[in-house]
Specification:
Blueprint: E1 17-20, E2 27-30, H1 93-101, E3 109-110, E4 123-125, E5 134-136, E6 168-172, E7 177-182, E8 185-187, E9 193-196, E10 198-203, H2 231-235, E11 243-247, E12 253-255, E13 276-279, H3 290-301, E14 304-309, E15 314-315, H4 325-328, E16 339-342, E17 348-350
Parallel strand pairs: 3-15, 4-6, 5-9, 11-14
Antiparallel strand pairs: 1-2, 6-7, 7-10, 8-9, 11-15, 12-17, 13-14, 13-16
Length: 351
């Protein structure tokens, strides 16, 4: 299996961290780009939140009603919405946590907040959105063919002129489809289109997996949008889904619902893509504000899913000017040692 690029993590403290690019098996040093957005469908140009709502669309189906509260983490996209607070603990949990903490930072870090541009911007479109062709520059054989309803002015992670991962995320609330591009660049000539290394059209009403071995806009072959902490849900006190997390060193393997590897280690203690973790039930949440507490509770109930290489324990959220850094600060005190690995229903697929 070919090696794959990794996430350039942004940092709210403004410092540079090491990120890995495994396309050629070489390490690259990267500084995460700032994400300036021009919201589509709501707000003024250049605003960062509030975002348009998703209408009647759910972000992937709920687990089947027959799923036991003590079931392992599911091997489909329904895993994003599965409460795993009572799921069994993985037998190698302690070894994996020790490995993670020995290869980078050892505490949770929200990869959103201030500057307000940190995080992932996204757009929401509706019926009649113009479809633009997608010209693939790297992984076209593993990408959805297009065209996609990604407007010319869709917000790009890092801004229009930035380097880095340059993700573009668009939800079409008329069809309940999610469109995600990696390394995306809008081109006005010769005819309007987007150039991108990879792109996926996700049906938000289906829990179906990507083909084994296929990448996506994320290194793990997973969707990005479902794992983002969005301001609206945190401020309302309920984040009812798993959260995307990056790790500095990962195993060259995946666990469904992931479908792709980007690892730098063959160690059985290294976390594979798609691995699920949760905050221990007895970790105290006293003194946390509404948003921070909602995120911490989500980490206990829905956990984290390893989705890319990047700074250790960095959790992903939307770019939004309304995040309150002081309220998010307590999350940075949660150590990696307060987490445990959740057993998965699917086995580890070594690459």
């Amino acid at each position: 299996m070919k090696p794959k690029r990794s996430q350039f993590s942004s940092h709210s403290d403004g410092k540079c961290e090491r990120a890995r690019s495994l396309r050629a098996g070489a390490a690259l040093l990267g500084v995460a780009a700032l994400a300036c957005v021009a919201l589509l469908g709501a707000g003024s140009a250049g605003a960062v939140g509030p975002y348009p709502d998703l209408g009647s669309c759910t972000v992937f189906p709920a687990p089947p009603a027959s799923t036991s509260p003590t079931a392992p983490s599911l091997g489909t996209e329904a895993a994003w919405n599965q409460n795993i607070s009572k799921a069994p603990r993985a037998a190698n949990s302690s070894k994996v946590i020790a490995y993670i903490d020995s290869h980078g930072g050892n505490a949770i870090h929200p990869d959103f907040g201030s500057p307000r541009e940190y995080g992932f911007p996204y757009a929401v479109v509706g019926a009649g959105a113009k479809q633009l062709p997608i010209h693939y520059t790297a992984y076209g054989s593993e990408s959805s063919p297009g065209p996609f309803p990604v407007p010319a002015g869709a917000p790009v992670e890092g801004g229009a002129h930035a380097e880095g991962d340059r993700h573009v995320l668009v939800v079409d609330k008329a069809t309940c489809k999610l469109f995600e591009l990696y390394d995306a660049r809008y081109q006005a000539t010769p005819k309007p289109h987007w150039d991108a290394d990879a792109g996926v059209e996700w049906d938000l009403r289906s829990a179906a997996l990507r083909p084994d071995g296929w990448t996506s806009a994320d290194a793990a072959g997973l969707p990005i949008f479902p794992g983002l902490v969005r301001y609206e849900e945190a401020a309302a006190g309920h984040v009812d889904h798993a959260i995307r997390v990056t790790m500095d060193s990962t195993r060259n393997a995946w666990i469904h619902p992931a479908s792709h590897c980007a690892g730098d280690s063959a160690s059985g203690a290294a976390p594979p893509m798609g691995m699920r973790l949760r905050l221990k039930a007895n970790y105290p949440l006293k003194g946390m504000g509404t948003a921070a507490r909602a995120i911490a509770v989500a980490m206990k109930e829905y956990g984290l899913i390893v989705a890319d290489n990047g700074s250790n324990w960095y959790i992903s959220g939307s770019s939004d000017s309304r995040w309150d850094d002081e309220e998010l600060e307590p999350l940075k005190g949660i150590p990696g040692s307060a987490f445990e690995v959740v057993r998965s229903a699917a086995g580890v697929h070594a690459c």
